[in-house]
Specification:
Blueprint (H helix, E strand, L loop, with lengths): L7 E10 L2 E11 L4 E5 L6 H8 L7 E6 L2 E2 L4 H6 L1 E4 L11 H11 L4 H14 L15 H12 L6 E5 L7 H16 L3 E5 L3 H4 L4 E6 L2 E6 L1 H7 L4 E8 L1 H8 L7 E5 L2 E6 L2 H14 L3 E8 L3 H8 L5 H5 L2
Parallel strand pairs: 3-8, 3-9, 6-7, 7-8
Antiparallel strand pairs: 1-2, 1-4, 4-5, 9-10, 11-13, 11-14, 12-13
């Protein structure tokens, strides 16, 4: 019998490829009915972790259970008890809408007695009632996205993995999609979602930031903003902007400097103490400062701060 019906449990999970450690001792619990966000830069171990949790990749060591099944010993049971949707939507574009739905119903072994009910549900959710014979490739992005989600959860799995599911769709469709996600979670489904949209991360109950194969931060969006910065944050409006960024690399007590729109965000140990120092430093180097003030960090600021270790860009985007 499964130990944890609708949850994801990870204990010291490790995955090595030869001498390369892609995932390095992750510990994590995702609760039943939770919308859990998984964030990380390219090469951080995010996709490798997802593949292990979906039963597609065997862990090197450690343990993970999804919907109560061990991903190492029971990968087929894991795959039959999850839904998975990738950023490519996992659909067959040359098939009709109804053909895609029936195909996935067969792949997920939807019982014959429930088949018509689940088909009707998928069509209604995707707003495709009466459009069953359209070729999938001709659908607008938002419709295709909802159809892909419907196909992924036809068998009513207790856990759903969504890998950058809103990539390439318009903001209105993205918001409607998140409404569907929260509706599923409200019915007890555990939703594990990866995204690169920082504003989408705000929709998650909790978030984990993975970097260099380990969990760098874990908590609610509010907790991450308040507790996970390596310092405090200053907003600096100045000219010329590009020159100011270069100059600040050698400024005392400036941990990091990055361009955000038409301003700079500086990470410093003490924002109040640094305001006068930074303003004088820039002025002494010929940079005109129009505004400098302490601000509250966004999730994007936290993300940048935790993944801006020296040499990380070269190593992980290679």
């Amino acid at each position: 019998m499964p130990e944890y019906n609708n949850s994801v449990m990870i204990e010291n999970l490790v995955k090595r490829f030869g001498d390369f450690v892609a995932v390095d001792g992750i510990n994590l619990e995702v609760r039943e009915g939770e919308v859990f966000g998984f964030l990380g830069p390219n090469g951080a171990g995010k996709s490798t972790t997802i593949r292990m949790l979906c039963g597609l990749l065997t862990p090197t060591s450690g343990r993970a259970r999804v919907a109560g099944y061990d991903v190492g010993r029971e990968p087929e049971s894991v795959r039959q008890n999850i839904g998975y949707m990738s950023q490519k939507f996992s659909l067959y574009n040359d098939l009709k809408v109804i053909e895609n739905i029936r195909l996935f119903a067969g792949l997920y072994s939807v019982p014959a007695g429930l088949l018509e009910e689940r088909i009707e549900w998928a069509l209604q959710m995707a707003n495709l009632k009466g459009q069953e014979n359209l070729i999938t490739a001709t659908l607008p992005g938002g419709w295709k996205q909802r159809l892909a989600l419907g196909c992924a959860v036809l068998h009513q799995p207790p856990v759903v993995f969504l890998d950058e599911p809103t990539s390439g769709v318009d903001p209105i469709s993205r918001r409607h999609f998140w409404d569907l996600i929260h509706h599923m979670a409200g019915e007890g489904v555990t939703v594990f979602v990866t995204t690169h949209y920082m504003e989408e991360a705000e929709y998650c109950n909790r978030l984990a930031l993975i970097f260099r194969g380990t969990i760098a931060a874990l908590g609610t969006p509010s907790e991450l903003r308040q507790e996970s910065m390596k310092g405090e944050l200053l907003l600096v409006e100045c000219e010329p902007l590009g020159e100011a960024v270069e100059i600040l690399q050698s400024a005392p007590d400036v941990i990091d400097a990055a361009v955000f729109g038409r301003a700079l965000h500086l990470v410093v140990p003490d924002a109040t103490a640094a305001i006068a120092q930074v303003k004088k430093f820039l002025s002494d180097h010929g940079v005109n400062v129009a505004l400098i003030d302490k601000i509250h960090p966004s999730l994007e600021d936290v993300f940048v701060s935790l993944t801006s270790a020296p040499g990380s860009e070269k190593e992980w985007n290679a």
